[in-house]
Amino acid sequence: MELLSTIIDYALPFLFVLTVLVFFHELGHYLIARLNGVRVEVFSVGFGPELFGWTNRAGTRWKFSMIPLGGYVKMFGENTTPDGVNQASLSDADQNIAFHTKTVGQRAAIVFAGPAANFLLAIITFALLFVFVGQPFTSPEIGKVHPNSAAERAGLQAGDIFVEVDGRDIDRFEEVQQIVVLNIGDPLSIIIDRNGEQLKLSARPEIIERKDRSGNIHRLGILGVSSKGRDYVHHSPGTAIWRAVLETGHLTVGTLKAVGQVISGQRETKELGGPIKIAQISHDFAQVSPDSLLWLIALLSINLGLLNLFPIPMLDGGHLLFYAYEAVAGRPLGERAQEIGLRIGLALVISLMVFVTLNDLINL
After folding, report:
1. Is 209 annotated as catalytic?
2. How many C-beta neighbours within 10 Å does residue 9 have?
3. Among 14, 67, 219, 244, which residue is least crowded by beta carbons within 10 Å?
């Protein structure tokens, strides 16, 4: 009974988070496909046998499937190449609603809409949090410099106000933290305000290993300064949306930087996680508060959007790469080349899933 309760405690938050992320991703594809006159045959959350569903007036089968690890939108003519030969076998009515008969720009827009929906979900979620819960805000003034820290060696003092770090203007102490945590050994250019005078300093954050709530170890940069105190600032809807756009942009850049560090070897690959890690984190955030779970959804939505934009066949970014070739060459990539690319992409995606799942099991 205890084991069943534990599984439910982890499974329910995980399924909730994953369902929200997948639904919005596929909804992006669906809406832009319908906007461009493409008939959508199936909208599925999950894979495998259907658990339950319904068919709308447009003929789309909306369904929830047994394996809740993803989802898909099946469009009429999606797996047919736009070479003119296949079009000849279609009636005029079918040609008007087929995916492959649309222009390369329309097809690219439909594919791009999935990742775009994930970024939009992050912005909407952040904006709602900033209105109703508040945006974490800490003054950029340094409250304390820790002894023998990178900050002390750089000459930072209590009362200094961060103005710019690594070329980024600073409004909140949290922005300094975002920059420093992702810094693995590189010196940071820092501009501070000290008694009305601006000074330019250089600091090299120390690297530490820290275990998160789920037991996973991460390498982080640390400067060695503390803030004067933390608060939450509630924004008006308009300001909240703008702040949400900025937050999404900063987190996107930070995520790309972290991926680059993994590729270059600055970060260990054991920091990568898969479904089990997401389930652990979802459980942990759900235990804290509902708004913490919303923060997680926004963060994971950004990651899902970015992942799908990577130029790997099988992912949306791989399809966009094919369409870019078609736009430049004036003709689609050959079927044989696309088939080889998709097989390579499938192998890469499966290899990545196996790798991150093994990481999860080792961390467990």
Report:
1. no
2. 14
3. 67
Q: pLDDT grade, residue 121 (50/70/90)?
A: very high
What whole-number distance in Å separates Cα of residue 345 and Cα of residue 310? 11
Residues 215-248 have pLDDT tens digits of 566 677 888 888 877 778 889 999 999 999 999 9
Q: Which domains does the chain have, with CATH numbers?
A: 2-132+300-363 (no CATH), 136-233 (2.30.42.10)
Q: Residue 164 has what pLDDT?
A: 92
Catalytic residue among 2, 26, 268, 339: 26
Q: What is the pLDDT of residue 228?
A: 79
Q: Is 169 exposed, middle or buried (0-12, 13-18, 19+ CB in 10 A)?
A: exposed
- Cα separation, 7 vs 15, in Å, equals 12
Tell me which of 212 and 186 has the higher pLDDT: 186
What pTM was computed for the model?
0.81
C-alpha triplet 324, 256, 342: angle, nearest 5°: 40
Where does the pLDDT of residue 84 fall: very low under 50, low under 70, confident under 90, or very high at 90 and above? very low
Exposure of 42 by Cβ count < 10 A (0-12 exposed, 13-18 middle, 19+ buried)? middle
